Amino acid sequence: MREEFAVALAELKKRRQPSIAQLELLLSASSGAEEEMLFTAADVVRHQELGDAVHLRGLIEFSNYCSWDCHYCGLRRSNQTVNRYRLSEQQLEAAAFFAAQHGYRTLVLQAGEDGFYSGDQLADMVRRVKRIADVAVTLSVGLRSRADFEKMRRAGADRYLMKQEISEPDVFAKLRPGTELKERVACLKWLKQEGWQVGSGFMIGLPGQTRRTLAQDLLLLQEIGVEMAGIGPFLPHPETPLREAAPGSLDDSLRALATARLLLPTVHMPATSAIGTLDPQGQRRALACGANVVMPNLSPTVIRKAYQLYPGKVGTTEDAMASHERVVAMLKEINRPVALDRGDGIRR
Predict the structure, then answer these.
(1) Given phi > 0 = left and psi -120 to 50 = alpha, else beta, which region is 250?
(2) How far is CA 209 from the centre of its chain?
(3) Closest among 337, 232, 241 to 283, alpha carbons compared
(4) What pLDDT, in 10s, does the model give residues 287-313?
(5) Strand partners, 109
């Protein structure tokens, strides 16, 4: 084991602010003793700060229309092979009712950046869900106006998720034509000031990414002060400009997740569907090195294949009950109980 790796790990375990170089060391943990030490340390911190219970966040993918042309996303505007949809009010309410019946305390309403929806329509969606289920509502619909955010907040929205994707501004601009990283970050900081619980995150393995970039991504999450952090592998979609790019690796994703847990001890972190798609054991392994959230898909089966950020997404042929039961069975097998509370952000 490298001495400098052991020193960097010890410093972070003591809750001392790491340098970029120290984060790079942890992100480069070699298989064997270094990874074992990193993953064990992250799991201990997760247990101490958040307990063993795993929060289930019910995911409802209510629209796959998107106005942007991001190079990594299967929902990009230029992908003419996508069967576009928007859920009806009845479909949304049925998903919320299922969540209420099965004890979910958070629902995530996610869509592409679909300009069809006004702020009033999104606010009405929040109110409908809140009338049916006693849940925290997380919205993930991209950049909106401040007026729209205020309407959603007054309607009862609790949290907002908007991933930074990559912390290098020039690479961000190339991967998301017509957008700027600073605009996204400024929005997240403003939302936090306004009392929202905010979430962000990034992909592992994007072209142009380095370990230094990943270290900067972690520090950006810390700077924003997120309550939620989604970290998972990049998976190339055949109908995007990155179709020939290599996918992110499971090992790199787990190292980033574990390092994030040490840097951000109280932040909620999912074992993502992308990591479960990359490897059948991926979510279990993520839960063993810092993750404390899983997001079962509660969307109607008929539209799941159409919400294809990347190919082969786990659970696309299931219905809500099958997705729920698969996740609950996995947690039972690894002796992790399902959390009964909302899992609100912890601010210290």
Answers:
(1) alpha
(2) 18
(3) 232
(4) 999 999 999 999 999 999 999 999 999
(5) 60, 139
